[in-house]
Every structure is written in C-alpha cells, then in structure tokens.
Amino acid sequence: MSTSSVNVVAHPLVQHKLSLMREKDRSTKSFREILNEIGMLLAYEVTRDLPLELVEIETPISPMQAPKIAGKKLTLAPILRAGVGFLDGMLALMPSARIAHIGLYRDPETLQAVEYYFKAPQDLSDRTVILMDPMLATGNSACAGASLLKDRGARDIRFVCLLAAPEGIAKFQSEHPDVPVWTAAIDERLNDHGYIVPGLGDAGDRMFGTK
Ligand SMILES: O=P(O)(O)OC[C@H]1O[C@H](OP(=O)(O)OP(=O)(O)O)[C@H](O)[C@@H]1O
Ligand SMILES: O=c1cc[nH]c(=O)[nH]1
Ligand SMILES: [Mg+2]
C-alpha cells in the first residue's frame, strides 16, 4: 500500500524561525508572531502544486489569457487550539479561504484525541482542505481531524504541521495514506508523556499563555 508523502520544508527562513520558537524563554507574544510568520511560509509550500486555469483578463495594454487558481475556494482547517496559530499567516496569502474549526484536545492520561467542536463549510467534497496543527506527536489528533473532514466529504486534504515525531508520522501515514504532510522538522522521539523531544513544549499553552 502506498503511503502519504512527507515534505520537510528546509527553507532557511523556516528553520531559523523554528529555532527561535524552540527557545524556552521566548515570550508568548513572540511565539505567537513567529508561528504566524511560519504559517505564511508553509502556506506557500503547501499550495505549490495547486492547479491553474487560464482566464481572459485585460491589462492596460491588451487582453490576455492569464493563469489563476482553478476550482472552488480552499478551506483552511485548524485543529483548536494551537492550529489557530497558523491561521492568520495562511489567510494573509489566501484571504478568501473558507475555514473549518476542529475542536480536539488530547487526553493527558490516554493521549487519545477528544472531540469538542466541529464546524465546516457544507461542501467539502470539491474543495482542497488544508488541515493544520503545529504538533504531530502521537498523531491521534491529526488522524481524528482528517477523519472528521473525510466524514464531511473532503477528498483532497493536505496536513501542515511545524514539528513531527516519527511515531506520529508513522501513524498518520498508515491511517491516512492519501493525505500528504508538510512539516518544518522531524524530531527524535516522544517522551513518556507523549511530548516531542527536543520539541518546543506545549504549543497551545505557549501560544495562549495558559501555563
Ligand atoms: O499528536 P497528538 O499526540 O495528538 O498531539 C498533538 C496535539 O496536542 C496538542 O493539543 P492539545 O491537546 O494540547 O490542545 P491545545 O492545542 O488546545 O493546547 C497539539 O496542539 C496537537 O493538537
Ligand atoms: O510536544 C508536544 C506534544 C503534543 N502537544 C504539544 O503541544 N507538544
Ligand atoms: Mg496544548
């Protein structure tokens, strides 16, 4: 069986900004700002192969056939809470995108994803959906998010994260072999609490200042 592709975004701007985010003394304000900046850079990568169509336009000089993105508007699907950290950056490049909110939290004992909210555009079947969450640890949250989108008809899903653990990638690839992954880095492993090592800690808490 084929597995989904994993694209590590090695661009120096992404790598530099990620290193800043890993620093334990970085402020909430700075952490949030950089996550948004990286969201914008990852948006550029994840949309690289979107299909174009030629559309008749008029420049001030003459008519021409000009390329524009084909199909319906994309849907951006952040997994709450930390996924929201990518949203403004992505929206800066795709201001007309639709948004699907996926409320999931990770049970600290079982590490299973627990659903608490889901609201998406009705017609996901003919839209490209960009699922996003900075952290792919066990993979339970990303897998649940992709399944919820598929239950609502989504067929073209791409998953964007900031940091991935090998364990999370393996799980995601086995459950969603049709969903390609973009990440800024693949770290060493998970610790006994399911946190990514070396990682950056708890992304949601660092973003929202809740610890
Ligand atoms: O791959 P997993 O093992 O599922 O872990 C990753 C999930 O854990 C964190 O969310 P958390 O439950 O802390 O919620 P939060 O974003 O609201 O803080 C993170 O934002 C991911 O959603
Ligand atoms: O390292 C981790 C693992 C899960 N969630 C986080 O925010 N960080
Ligand atoms: Mg959290």
TrEMBL record:
Keywords: Allosteric enzyme, Glycosyltransferase, GTP-binding, Magnesium, Nucleotide-binding, Transferase
EC number: 2.4.2.9
Any one Pfam family match given in the protein's UniProt record, by short name: UPRTase
Cofactor: Mg(2+)
Catalytic activity, as annotated: UMP + diphosphate = 5-phospho-alpha-D-ribose 1-diphosphate + uracil
SUPFAM superfamilies for this protein: PRTase-like
UniProt protein name: Uracil phosphoribosyltransferase
Residue ranges constituting the Phosphoribosyltransferase domain according to the UniProt record: 8-210
InterPro entries: PRTase-like, PRTase_dom, Upp_B, UPRT, UPRTase/APRTase
Function summary: Catalyzes the conversion of uracil and 5-phospho-alpha-D-ribose 1-diphosphate (PRPP) to UMP and diphosphate.
Residues given in the record as uracil binding sites: 196, 201-203
EC top class named in words: transferase
Cofactor: binding details: Binds 1 Mg(2+) ion per subunit. The magnesium is bound as Mg-PRPP.
